[in-house]
Design brief:
Layout (H helix, E strand, L loop, with lengths): L8 H4 L3 H22 L1 H10 L19 H10 L16 E4 L9 E4 L1 H17 L7 E4 L7 H13 L2 E3 L6 H11 L3 E4 L1 H14 L11 E4 L8 H11 L2 E8 L3 E6 L7 E3 L5 E6 L14 E8 L10 E11 L11 E7 L4 E3 L2 E3 L1 H9 L5 E9 L10 E7 L6 H16 L3 E6 L15 E3 L3
Parallel strand pairs: 3-4, 3-5, 5-6, 6-7, 16-19, 17-18
Antiparallel strand pairs: 1-2, 7-8, 8-9, 9-13, 10-11, 11-12, 12-13, 14-15, 16-17
Helix pairs in contact: 5-6, 8-9, 9-10, 10-11
The protein binds zinc ion.
Length: 443
């Protein structure tokens, strides 16, 4: 088993025509399943005047989009899982809850078959990033309501890796165990890894690079795909950093880098259809290298809470559509950011991940931690935009640093910022999985 190159060669190297046929067959099954069991979709399709049983892969684009707000609303109308839930609660083996940006979490249910599907996709991801039987894996994500922790644990058991269920608490104990038992691989988020770096160096006097990690896979936010942030983590921990991405509504991971690291491969073949649309017009677009597109997902083998043409809100750049040097055929992307996080300054679109990249290029004059202050949503953003930047271990002349940062933002990102420097530690990660880099003023 350990010698095979892919977890699932047939699916991960499938050719486009064969994948299309498989997607067509499973989409038809899924739409019939939904038609028979989901009050939410029966009503939605009826209102759109569409017979879902007439739809196949070629005509998928005719179905209306589903958005997160509809999921939230239907969960209130049909508690607890919503009107898109297609099975009775006693067939649900696990319920997860998303953190939710508005405070009220949305719930995600899995049947036994859905849980097996997640195991399969996650095993493809873990295998592609180097996990094998016996690999010592530091599972450094929240274990609990969050979809990732338990799901990774199940998939790691399936591969027969050696799991360290560290979670995100008790960092001191974790470092103690990891140093005694040795470690090969870590799963976490960029923000949490930065937190661990600070704990190791400043509280425990440990060099993270001395632990012997060979690789880490980071998701939950775009950081691992941002060149400066990836480089910083790789240098600090002296290991390879893989970028991966998923979503609570479909699977904890649907995209992962392989050893070639030429973008994240789609690895949900047979379970999810990934479509690309123009974020402004909503029109489907044919994936081509270099294009910027918004992701849309459709479940095609989900029993519990299938979603059709779900606008997940991730903007991506298409990195490659052909076969990769690793042999996988899954289309390759990089995440640019959340549509919701993008802000516009006098007609220029700005993503926090791009600001992060520019600021991190100033290390060690800065730590790389920063915050952007914006007016309430809906109000125009007038330059200069306040950007708060944390001083690093070797800041040098502060007036010059401020001027250099403002100049780099203006020339590379084409907007005017006013930089405010704050002491080291003021913006440090506090042990959460994600960081909040945009602060919006209250109305
Ligand atoms: Zn590849």
């Amino acid at each position: 088993m350990a010698n095979r190159r892919y977890w699932n060669e047939a699916m991960e190297t499938i050719d486009a025509a064969e994948l299309w046929r498989l997607e067509d067959e499973r989409l038809r099954w899924q739409l019939r399943w939904i038609w028979e069991h989901s009050p939410f979709y029966r009503q939605k399709f009826a209102e759109a005047g569409i017979d879902p049983l007439s739809i196949g892969r070629d005509s998928l684009y005719r179905l209306p989009f589903t958005v997160k707000e509809e999921v939230r609303r239907t969960q209130e109308e049909y508690p607890p899982l919503g009107g898109h839930a297609c099975v009775p609660l006693e067939e649900v083996v696990r319920i997860h809850a998303s953190s939710g940006t508005t405070g009220k979490p949305t719930l995600v249910g899995l049947t036994e078959a859905d849980a097996r599907m997640w195991n399969e996709i996650l095993a493809r991801f873990l295998w592609a990033t180097g996990v094998r039987p016996g690999t010592r894996v530091w599972l450094s994500v929240t274990l609990g309501w969050y979809i990732a922790g338990l799901s990774f644990y199940e998939a790691l058991r399936q591969i027969r890796a050696t799991v360290y269920p560290a979670g995100t608490m008790e960092a001191t104990r974790t470092f103690n165990v990891v140093r005694r038992a040795g470690v090969d691989y870590m799963i976490s988020s960029p923000t949490f890894v930065n937190y661990l770096t600070n704990v190791a160096r400043e509280r425990l006097g440990i060099d993270p690079g001395s632990l012997g990690l060979k690789a880490m896979a980071l998701g939950g936010e775009p950081g691992a795909g941002v060149p400066q942030i990836r480089q910083q983590i790789e240098e600090t921990w002296r290991c390879k950093v893989y970028d991966a991405m998923g979503t609570a509504d479909f699977a904890p991971i649907l995209w992962t880098e392989c050893e070639a690291q030429a973008g994240m491969h789609f690895i949900g073949q047979g379970f999810v259809i990934a479509e690309f649309i123009d974020p402004e017009t909503g029109q489907s677009i044919e994936p081509k290298e270099g294009l910027l597109a918004e992701l849309v997902y459709t479940a095609i083998q989900r029993e519990c809470v299938p979603l059709i043409r779900f606008r997940i809100g991730d903007l991506v750049r298409i990195e490659g559509t052909g076969k990769c040097e690793c042999g996988r055929t899954g289309i390759r992307i990089r995440c640019v950011g959340r549509v919701d996080d993008m802000f516009i300054v006098r007609g220029v679109n700005v993503f926090p991940s791009a600001v992060a990249d520019v600021i991190a290029s100033f290390r060690p004059r800065v730590t790389g931690e920063f915050q952007i202050r914006l007016p309430p949503r809906g109000l125009p953003i007038e330059p200069p935009v306040p950007v708060i930047v944390e001083l690093g271990p070797e800041p040098g002349d502060l007036h010059r640093l401020k001027r250099d940062l403002e100049e780099a933002i203006r020339s590379q990102l084409i907007f005017r910022a006013v930089v405010q420097l704050v002491p080291k530690g003021e913006l440090s990660p506090t042990g959460t999985m994600k960081r909040q880099v945009i602060l919006r003023e209250e109305r």
